[in-house]
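Module 6 notes. Inverse folding takes a fixed backbone as the condition and produces residue identities as the prediction. Think of it as a translation problem where the source language is geometry and the target language is the twenty amino acids. Below is one complete input and output pair. Work through it position by position during the lab.
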């Protein structure tokens, strides 16, 4: 399940996508328009900036903006930046792998099934982009 934080990230990103021709957008404008707490939104946008999705400009005419085209930003990247692993179990995560306690992965049926679930999710999330969200609204 997507966290509230990830949902807000998608709301903010789609707003920035709609306003991309207007230049940088103030965080207060995004907060007001999308009804997201300013403090919470600051954290989200900072993570997206550190993750290479957003840029920011200080001073007059400043704000946040997309640094890539929406069709170049996979949904999987956004989810990983905000929520972490996409896999439902740590032992099947590609980027956040951790061995499960008291489990032998070579004979674990749950591991096998959850690997298939991960692959199915990734097939969609790696191939769908921010642009696809906007096109489906």
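Target side of the pair, the amino acids:
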């Amino acid at each position: 399940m997507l966290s509230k934080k990830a949902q807000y990230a998608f709301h903010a990103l789609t707003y920035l996508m709609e306003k991309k021709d207007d230049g940088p957008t103030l965080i207060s404008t995004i907060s007001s328009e999308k009804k997201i707490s300013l403090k919470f939104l600051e954290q989200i946008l900072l993570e997206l900036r550190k993750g290479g999705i957003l840029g920011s400009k200080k001073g007059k005419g400043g704000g946040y903006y997309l640094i890539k085209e929406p069709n170049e930003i996979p949904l999987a990247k956004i989810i990983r930046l905000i929520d972490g692993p996409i896999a439902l179990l740590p032992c099947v995560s590609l980027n956040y792998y951790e061995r499960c306690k008291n489990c032998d992965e070579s004979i674990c049926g749950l591991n096998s099934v959850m690997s298939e679930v991960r692959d199915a999710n990734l097939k969609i999330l790696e191939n769908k982009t921010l642009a696809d969200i906007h096109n489906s609204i």
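Reference fact for the lab report: The beta strands are 54-57, 63-66.
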